[in-house]
Amino acid sequence: MTSFQDARAFLLKHRTDYDAAVKGFRWPDPVPFNWALDWFDAELARNPDSRDRAALWIVDAGHKETKLSFAALSARSNQVANFLRAQGLRRGDHLLLLLGNVVPLWETMLAAMKLGVVVIPATTLLTSDELRDRLDRGKARVVVASQDQVAKFAGLGSDNLVRIVVGASTTHDGWLPFEQAASASDSLGRPSISFAAIARSRRRCSGLGGGVASSRASKARGPPASRGSTPSARSAPPAPRPPAAS
User: Fold this and answer.
1) I want to staple 28 with a disulfide (CB 3.0 to 4.6 A). Which of 4, 113, 158, 244 is the partner?
2) For residue 93, what is the DSSP state?
3) Contact by Cβ (8 Å): 81, 115
4) What 3-state class would DSSP assign to 75?
5) Which residue in 53, 2, 60 sits closest to 27, CA to CA?
6) Integer CA distances (angstroms), 149 to 83, 98, 112, 164, in order
7) Cα 228 to Cα 73: distance, rounded to the nearest angstrom
8) Biggest CA-to-CA distance, the chain
9) Contacts (Cβ under 8 Å, ≥6 apart) of 222
10) Is 145 in contact with 120 (CB distance < 8 Å)?
11) Domains contained in the chain, CATH given
12) For residue range 116-144, what is the model confidence (pLDDT) as tens digits?
């Protein structure tokens, strides 16, 4: 059985030997795998060689720097995941995300991965009408936005829409402060897999193209062919024309 870790270690070991990498590579066996839980948390955030390295380094317009280690970002994203879970978010639900390049953006994306929540990333330049379209077609159950986006949501969304505001200097009716996540536990239990929820999520996203089917097709084809392999018929040069009769 080949795990994700085994496949990665093999490619790193043979990263300077293309032919050996192609010949010996094996795709990981299809077992439940959550990158945020099984790699970011289990490996990068716990390994003594990486846990204290910078995982996130942001320099804002005023040249203020913010750094978080793998261990710190793991713990903080766990808190956000528990906070979202407490608001009723479950695997397969959709989250609309309207934030600039700030720490809560990355904490929320990691938290969503851990819960199996689908992120709908959106630019902060969207208008109210464009946000209405995202909410309706994206079937978002929660929105996480910065304070300057709150006014755009007036009259948008149902009463069941969970609204979370980041960095608010004042209270906003109907909006939960993102900072409440800091009081949540930084220990996260693995979410249960609901195949019905996964199926619903795939049906919602079926019109987006590519995705799972493309990934599976790529895996079925295997790794790139060796440089010495015979070219396919499509890439073969055309046969030379016979000389013209004199």
Assistant:
1) 4
2) -
3) yes
4) helix
5) 2
6) 21, 8, 21, 11
7) 44
8) 91
9) 27
10) no
11) 1-31 (no CATH), 77-205 (3.40.50.980)
12) 999 999 999 999 999 999 999 999 999 99
SS3 for 184-222, per residue?
CCCCCCCCCCCHHHHHHHHHHCHHHCCHHHHHHHHHHHC
For 195, the token pair is: 């195949």
Asked if 157 and 106 touch (Cβ cutoff 8 Å), the reply is no
CA gap 142, 115 in Å, rounded: 13
Which residues lie closer than 8 Å to 115 by C-beta, 6 or more apart?
A: 81, 84, 85, 89, 90, 91, 191
Write the CA distances from 66 to 44, 102, 142, integer angstroms: 19, 9, 27
- Structure tokens given for 111: 């938290």
In the chain, the N- to C-terminal Cα span, in Å, equals: 66
Overall average pLDDT of the 53-69 stretch: 93
Rounded to 10°, the helix 103-115/70-86 angle is: 60
Q: What secondary structure does DSSP assign to 166-181, as a single string? A: ES-SS--TT-EEGGGG
Query: 118 has which bridge partners?
Result: 94
